[in-house]
Design brief:
The protein is α+β, with helices and mostly antiparallel strands. Helices cover 18% and strands 39% of the residues. The protein has 1 helix and 2 strands. The protein is globular and about 35 Å long.
Length: 56
Amino acid sequence: MCDINRIETEDIGFGLRALRVEVIVDDSEGKIDSVERILSSTKGVGQVDSEGVSLI
């Protein structure tokens, strides 16, 4: 489905942490939505946002 290029964690306060995941997916319709859906279904994940999308 995708290749994980990089994973970073960031403390954002009040005991919350952000997990920043950089993935590479095929240029097909709905791929980003599928990755977001899988990440948001992970236990402990409260929210998933795409910060940037570009072609390589």
